[in-house]
Amino acid sequence: MNFLNCLAGGALLLSCTAAAAAQLAPELWDRPRSAAAVMAQDAVRQSVAAHQARTGSRMVIVHGVRQEAQLQAEELRAWLVALAVDSARLSLRADPAATGLRIEVSE
Asked: How confident is the model over 65-78, as pLDDT tens digits?
């Protein structure tokens, strides 16, 4: 069972535990981005919904250590802030083992 499933009965990727994570599809970076393209990503929609449903939660964008991964994470952060995610509750974290971008939502 997942976090949003706990709230609304939907079948999504996020878990009911204190921390939830969703992996972004790498195809997002194959084309120009727009707000609609970013929000069309399942991982983004699920993470934002979980974040908004949990008062005091934090979102962390986990990325690889390569420069391209960091730039993608920074662009995603900018999109999320533009889409009304509180920047004070959103951060980036480099992870040498990361193979793509992952959004984590925690208490």
From this structure: 999 999 999 999 99
Q: Can you read off the two tokens belonging to residue 82?
A: 């533009």
Q: What is the mean pLDDT of the chain?
A: 83
pTM passes above 0.70: yes
At 41, which helix (H) or strand (E)?
Answer: none
Sign of the alpha-carbon dihedral angle for 74, 75, 76, 78: positive
SS3 at position 93: strand
Task: State the DSSP H helix or E strand holding residue 23, giving kind and residue range, or none if neither.
Answer: strand 19-23
Pull the structure tokens for residue 78: 């900018």
The pair phi, psi for residue 85, each rounded to 5°, is -80, 130
